[in-house]
Amino acid sequence: MDKKDNPMSRLMELAAPYKGEYVLSVILAILGVAAGLLPFFAVSKIVILLMDGETSVAVYMEWCLIAGIGFLGKVCFANLSTLVSHTATFATLAEIRLKLADKLTRVPMGYMINTPSGELKNVLVDRVEGMETTLAHLVPELTANLCIPICILIYLLFLDWRMALAALITLPIGMLCYKGMANGYEEKFQGLIMRVRKMTSTVVEYIGGIEVIKAFNQSANSYQKYSDAVEDNASYAVNWMKSVQLYKSMLVTIWPSVLVCVLPIGCVLYRNGSLSVPAFVTCIVLSLGIITPILNAMNFTDSISQMKSVVGELCAVLDEKELDRPETPVSIHSSNIVLENVSFSYESEKPLLKNINLSIPENSITAFVGPSGGGKSTITKLIAGFWDVTNGTVKLDGIDIRKIPLSQLMDNIAYISQDNYLFDETVLENIRMGKPSATDEEVYQAARDCGCYDFILNLENGFQTVVGGAGGHLSGGERQRIAIARAVLKNAPIVILDEATAYIDAENEALIQEAMAKVIAGKTVLMIAHRLSTITDADKIVVVKDGQIIGEGTHENLLTSCMLYQEMWKAHMDTKDVA
User: Which of 106, 184, 373, 375 has its CA at a distance of 20 to 30 angstroms from the CA of residue 294?
Assistant: First the structure.
């Protein structure tokens, strides 16, 4: 397997800056387990002393003290190991989150748009956080629990190789049981994860849509879908547990039964005079310390599979193709836009755009119309650099936008969509995002310019009003007007309006149209409109259908030259007449 495709290898790469801390935690964990063996040695020694008739209390106290020191050392080393490994793990997880956040700034904007925010949040927060316990304990404890049995066996081999082999008799039988348990484990674990996600998604959908479910009397159907997902998850987990229960029962019965082999073999060797009493007692006591660490190591099976799944998701984001852009700014003198033979498709999908050729002059208004899904928004998003074209070029002032640093391209474009996001900050700071260096007065002026100054002052705390997550404390119209103020403050030479008033009521639409007139004055404007009456004065109207331009020109020209535009205009006028 390629190292890049191995989740655990990738995890080691991500944790590499803290390799020293993890090595130290492993050493401390091994010392802790080793210290935990001292009581075994002490007990065996005390038993031997009793059998020899030792009467000195001081000798017994000495070995009891050694046992106590061993127990105390085990606790101290284990706690130190946990502290070091957790410190390294928290730093590693912080590093992973920073890498993910940095990655998201360099992937195509289209990836961000097409990926549900809940999915990204799940990766950045929940899945990364879920690694904490496993990563902090897996590295030191798994290593220690594997090293200690090996050390015991080596000691037993020096003490008496026959007793060492006797202590191992149950091991191969247990390994066969473990193999039966582990058969198809990865696939079954992934199946369980898939069902848990489906169940979670169904629960979220059920709760989020409860209002619609009740309004349309769909409670029974929706509950059935939810119930089916829960039952599917439960039955899958139960069936999996049933399939391994026999192996598990045999394993936990056979492996701890090491004395069943050690005692009779030791007795035979003792009776034959080939095994001394001290060696016999020591072998009995130490053999008890072999299986427990191995059983503890087995408990990490789930953790390792879970870790592989999580790292796989993280790497899927980290390996996402980035926009290849230069760092050095270029000289841009105009906002002329040209698309030459542009085609675009997502990976392994049919083309969304085919051989688009279009010229958009500086300081002009170009409107895009056409059936839903025809490619209007895709064209504007390619111009904004959300994706790279599959074929052809998009040029700004004669420069291929792939040769322009992404930050510089974004400085030249103000993008206003139908659903603009506001952060859980004050109105002032949300507007200031258009120009982070702007003074408060510049923000106020931008609000005045787009006609939302008065409505902001009427909010509870004026410009210091916190708008809530995603602007949830404001109406849709209010959020849109603040987004427009942000664009006014940015003062970019190119403005893209992606159905900016699609979901706004008539009263707010009039206010927003007036505000947008301030935004687009003297700019190169690209707009996608859902009402044709708002674009009749555009310098150019582009009709897009099935990923191709089937007509372009002024409103009057298209009414005579483009059948689709004629039909759309007729439908629009009929709707107005009915209204």
Answer: 184
What are the residues facing 498 on neighbouring strands?
A: 417, 528
As given in the structure block, the two tokens for residue 250 are 């045999």
Distance CA 417, CA 489 (A): 16
Asked which of 128, 159, 190 is the last residue of a domain, the reply is 159
Q: Which region among 316-325, 372-381, 410-419, 462-471 has the lowest average model confidence (pLDDT)?
A: 462-471
For residue 255, give Cα distances in angstroms to 67, 160, 287, 395: 26, 21, 11, 71
pLDDT over 70 at 205, yes or no: no
Q: How far apart are CA 164 and CA 520, in angstroms?
A: 85
Whether the Cβ atoms of residue 551 and residue 564 lie closer than 8 Å to each other: yes
In the Cβ-directed half-sphere of 145, how many Cα atoms lie within 13 Å?
A: 16
> 494 has which bridge partners?
413, 524
Neighbouring residues of 415: CB distance < 8 A, sequence distance ≥ 6 = 384, 496, 498
Q: For 263-290, how does the pLDDT look when each residue is reduced to its tens digit (9 = 90+)?
A: 888 888 888 888 888 888 888 877 877 7
pLDDT digit string (tens) for 462-475?
888 887 655 556 77
Range of the domain at 451: 337-578
Residue 481 lies in a domain: yes
Count of domains for the chain:
2
At 110, which CATH number?
A: 1.20.1560.10
Question: pLDDT for 352-380, tens place per residue?
Answer: 888 999 999 998 989 999 888 888 888 98
pLDDT at position 514: 67
Alpha-carbon torsion 454, 458, 463, 467, what sign? negative
**What is the C-alpha end-to-end distance of the chain, expressed in Å?**
65
Look at residue 258 and tell me if it is in a domain: no
Q: What is the CATH number of the domain that holds 362?
A: 3.40.50.300
Which residue type is seen at 482? I
Whether 461 is covered by a domain: the verdict is: yes
Tokens of 234: 């439960």
Q: Which two tokens stand for residue 271?
A: 């009776």
Unique residue bearing structure tokens 């802790």:
32
Tokens of 60: 């017994």
268 assigned to some structural domain: no
Last residue of a domain, one of 94, 125, 159: 159
Concatenated DSSP letters of 508-525: HHHHHHHHHHHHHTTSEE
- H-state helical runs in 384-459: 406-411, 427-432, 440-449, 453-457
3-state secondary structure of 391: strand
The position carrying tokens 């439908």 is: 571
CA distance 144 to 132: 19
**For tokens 């982070």, what's the residue?**
436
Dihedral in degrees, nearest 10, Cα atoms 51, 261, 296, 41: 20
- d(C-alpha 33, C-alpha 37), whole Å: 7
